[in-house]
Each structure stands twice: as C-alpha cells, then as structure tokens.
C-alpha cells in the first residue's frame, strides 16, 4: 500500500510481538479466549471504549465490508480507524485510518504503552495463560485509535468471532458477511457450528446486519443468536435489491510509483476497472449507484451490508456520501490489477488475489473471465498446507497458457508435492518450482513473452511475495 514507506518500520515492536504465538503462522488449538484481552484493556484504561465502533465478521467479505464502512464514515467527515488482516506489504496496513497511516507519534506511543503494560503485568495474566501475537496487535490497534482520538473504529474479526480478540468491543452495529466452511478444526465441521462462532459477536440489543447467505442453516443460527440476545436483525438479502452488475474499464490516467524500488505501474484500484450497479432499499431515500473499485459481483452484496450498517446507525446519512464512500473503498490483494509495470512492458496485466478457498477461487475465476475473456493468461499458484488444493486445482483447467506452482513464501507450511499432485490429477500441464522468487520471475517472464495476463492467487502470502519481488528487482 502506498504511503507506508515513509512511516515507521516498527522493527522493535514487531520483533517484540514475534516472541509470542502467531496463529497466522503457527495454527494451534485451545488458544482463544477473551479474559486476557479484557485484562490488558483494563490495565490500559479501556482504549476499546474511546471510539464508537462497528464490528464485522464472516467467512468471506468481512475485509471488504470493513473497508467500505470505514470509507463511508470518512466521506461523512468522521476520523475513522480501521483494523484489518492480513497485511500484504507493511505491518501497519492492519492498523491505520480510513485515509492511510496515522502520524508516527501515534504508533510510537501505542507501542510504548502496550509493551510497558505487558512487561508490568505479564506475571499476573489471568490463569497464567500466555499472550498471543494477535491479542497484542489487537490491543495495539485499540490504543492507536484512542491516542489518535478517532471518532469511529471499524474492527474486522480475525478468526471466528465469539472468542476472537476483537470481541471485547461494544459496537453500535455488528455485521456478518457470507459464511462457508473454513478453519473447521477450530470453528467446527459444519456451517451451523461456524455460524455460531461468527454469531458470537452479536451483542445484547445491538443491531446486526446479516449479509446474503448461501447456506440456510447458517442464516438460521445467526437469527437465533440475534433473537436470544434481543438484537434487531437487518437482513441485507430481503432489504436490498441489487441490479445486474456491470463491469467497467476506464482509461488510465494515474501512475503509482513505489518509492522504495522505483517500480512504476498503473493501478486498477486507483483508476481502472470497476463494477457498477444499483442498490435499492426502503432504508434509502433514493437508489444508490456506486462504481466500486473492488471487483467481483459478490462485492455488490458486501456493499449492501456496508450501506445498511451505516444507515442503521445514521438513518439520515446522505445517500450521496454513502455512494461516494463505497466507490472509494479499496483493499490490496483483493483482485488488485496492476498494468504497465515498467520492467515488464509486454505484460498485459498482473492480477493479485489472495483467494484460498474453493468458493473464493471460484469467484476469482468468474471475475477473471468477465474482465479478460479471450485474453492469453498465465497462472502462478501457491497455497498453504491446510487448503483444499485438490478441489481448487480443477477450477483453473483449460484456461491458462502457462501454469506455475510454488510455495507461498516461507511464512506458512505448505505441501509442494500436494499442489503438484493436485494439478497433475486435474490434468493441468504445469511447472512446479520450489523457490518462490524464481517462480515469480519465471511466471512474469512467461506472461510477458506471451503478452498475457498473469493471475497470482492461492494465498495472501504469495501476493505479498510478488509485491516484495517487484520492489527488490
């Protein structure tokens, strides 16, 4: 994300939190509970209570909903903090305002406060349970928003909801986007069990916006959770009518320059492709006509959740401002399209998408075809060991002129043999390359020679590796 190169590297703080268990890198059972977060927040003067907030959960779309809500709040004139994960290039992507990074002093003071608090109270933690990386990052974010005096904060749940570290906040509105089977070893082996965990963010008397659900069982569980807690339900699917989604391609007139490496490219999330549609609801004084930078038909449903959430809290909010806020929202690594990359002049486009489940890869391929139908294409794929590559691989069949399979970096465990077998089993000719940087260079060169679009997908970690590679080479 542009803007972070001028800001703190946060090396000392990152090295300090890396001493603690990071579930994103090393998944482990039975580490989720809320008592440690309540304890730390109390010792820090409850920073989570200093800003009004929205709380967003879901299997797919929660990051987009969070980005859209924060963008709308920003358009309405509120100073808004947004907490999201994962980060692609810079740790501080997780903790920033809707306009970008906070001032250095905010991060420095928050880091000092959190580190001092932990060092002082680490021997008195509830039941002596060890701290986790995500707990520390979450309380750091809360401290940042308090120090920066944010009017609002938007918290994206990390995993699940009920026992997620963010679930110490008391929001003005909760949002739950689409639910599917994910992290079954931690959240349960049915969509109903997973929905129960996601529904754990629903608070007594606090309205909850429920997005379109593919599985009726998930919807029933969420509605039961809301009913038990006396939480008004705002059902996006029944309250919103979405017209046909139209894909647009505008002429580029903006250039992004990564100052750390002088990589020059034109960014579709800045000024290129978009989707437009009409969003109608009895809650709106007129239909909304956003033109989203976030691509994919499913983003229209995420926009409905975000718009309804804002309208639930601000019934008199201007439709003009909601429309503008939705249209401004962007997230790195979610069908992010880069064009005219200076060192790869023959490349048609580079598409970066962190899709890593069957449904998300399905949506990625649908969007890819909408935008690049008939274009030559090359695939670079890499996923973590716990992903269902056996069922993802066939989704790429008979579409690509070159396929490269690699490790998504060194952060998470992966099975290169498993990926190789899955693509072979799907009957997809491919080349398996163990060294990630060499795989990236090979895929870029292949796409450049063919004048093709290069799709990078399977993991946010692989997307991060590609962006790092472009900076360094």
In brief, what are we looking at here?
The chain has about 475 residues and is of the alpha/beta class. It contains 17 helices and 20 strands.
Question: What is the topological layout?
Answer:
Blueprint: H1 11-17, H2 35-43, E1 52-57, H3 62-75, E2 80-83, E3 95-97, H4 104-121, H5 133-147, E4 152-156, E5 173-176, H6 184-187, H7 191-198, E6 208-210, H8 216-228, E7 233-235, H9 236-239, E8 241-242, E9 246-249, E10 256-258, E11 263-267, H10 268-271, E12 273-276, E13 279-280, E14 291-292, H11 298-313, H12 319-328, E15 336-339, E16 349-352, H13 358-372, E17 377-381, H14 389-392, E18 402-406, H15 416-425, E19 431-433, H16 436-450, E20 453-457, H17 460-472
Parallel strand pairs: 1-4, 1-5, 2-4, 5-6, 6-7, 16-20, 17-18, 17-20, 18-19
Antiparallel strand pairs: 2-3, 8-13, 9-12, 10-11, 11-15, 12-14, 15-16
What features would you describe in this structure?
The chain is built from 17 helices and 20 strands. The protein has 473 residues and is α/β, with parallel strands linked by helices. The protein has an eight-stranded mixed sheet with strand order 10-11-15-16-20-17-18-19, sandwiched between helices. The chain has a seven-stranded mixed sheet with strand order 3-2-4-1-5-6-7, sandwiched between helices. The protein is globular, with a radius of gyration of 22 Å.
Give the count of helical stretches.
17
What is the C-alpha radius of gyration, as a whole number of Å?
Answer: 22 Å
The class by helix and strand makeup works out as alpha/beta
Q: Calculate the terminal CA-CA distance, rounded to whole Å.
A: 18 Å
Which residues form runs of ≥5 with pLDDT under 50?
Answer: 251-270
Overall spatial form: globular
What topology, given as strand order, has the largest sheet?
Answer: 10-11-15-16-20-17-18-19
Kindly report the average pLDDT value: 91
Total strands: the figure is 20
Major β-sheet profile: 8 strands, mixed
Percent of residues in beta strands: 15-25%
What percent of the residues sit in helical stretches (DSSP H or I)? 25-40%
């Amino acid at each position: 994300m542009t803007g972070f190169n001028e800001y703190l590297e946060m090396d000392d703080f990152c090295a300090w939190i890396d001493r603690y268990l990071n579930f994103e890198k090393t998944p482990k059972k039975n580490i989720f509970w809320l008592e440690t977060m309540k304890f730390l927040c109390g010792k820090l003067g409850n920073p989570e209570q200093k800003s009004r907030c929205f709380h967003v959960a879901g299997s797919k779309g929660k990051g987009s909903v969070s980005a859209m809500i924060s963008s709308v709040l920003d358009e309405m004139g509120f100073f808004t903090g947004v907490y999201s994960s994962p980060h692609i290039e810079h740790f501080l992507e997780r903790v920033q305002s809707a306009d970008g990074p906070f001032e250095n002093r905010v991060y420095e003071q928050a880091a000092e406060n959190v580190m001092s608090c932990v060092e002082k109270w680490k021997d008195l933690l509830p039941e002596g349970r060890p701290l986790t990386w995500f707990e520390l990052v979450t309380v750091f974010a809360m401290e940042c928003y308090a120090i920066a005096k944010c009017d609002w904060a938007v918290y994206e749940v990390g995993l699940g909801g009920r026992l997620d570290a963010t679930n110490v906040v008391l929001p003005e509105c909760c949002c739950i986007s689409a639910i599917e089977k994910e992290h079954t070893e931690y959240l349960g082996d049915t969509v109903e069990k997973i929905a129960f965990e996601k529904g754990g963010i629903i608070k007594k008397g606090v309205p909850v916006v429920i997005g379109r659900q593919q599985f009726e069982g998930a919807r029933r569980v969420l509605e039961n959770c809301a009913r038990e807690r006396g939480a008004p339900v705002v059902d996006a699917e029944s309250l919103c009518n979405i017209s046909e989604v139209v894909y647009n391609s505008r002429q580029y007139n903006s250039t992004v320059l990564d100052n750390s490496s002088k990589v020059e490219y034109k960014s579709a999330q800045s000024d290129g492709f978009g989707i437009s549609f009409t969003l109608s609801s009895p809650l709106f004084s007129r239909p909304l006509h956003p033109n989203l930078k976030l691509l994919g038909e499913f983003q229209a449903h995420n926009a409905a959740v975000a718009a309804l959430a804002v309208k639930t809290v601000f019934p008199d909010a201007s439709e003009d401002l909601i429309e503008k806020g939705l249209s401004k929202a962007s997230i790195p690594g979610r069908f992010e399209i880069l064009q005219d990359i200076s060192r790869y002049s023959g490349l048609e486009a580079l598409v970066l998408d962190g899709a890593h489940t069957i449904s998300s890869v399905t949506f990625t391929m649908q969007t890819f075809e909408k935008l690049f139908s008939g274009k030559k294409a090359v695939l670079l794929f890499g996923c973590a060991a716990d992903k269902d590559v056996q069922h993802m691989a066939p989704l790429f069949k008979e579409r690509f002129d070159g396929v490269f399979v690699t490790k998504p970096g060194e952060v998470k465990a992966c099975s290169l043999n498993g990926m190789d077998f899955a693509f072979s089993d799907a009957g997809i000719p491919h080349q398996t390359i163990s060294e990630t940087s060499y795989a990236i260079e090979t895929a870029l060169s292949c796409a450049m020679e063919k004048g093709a679009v290069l799709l990078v997908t399977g993991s946010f970690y692989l997307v991060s590796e590609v962006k790092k590679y472009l900076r360094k080479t």
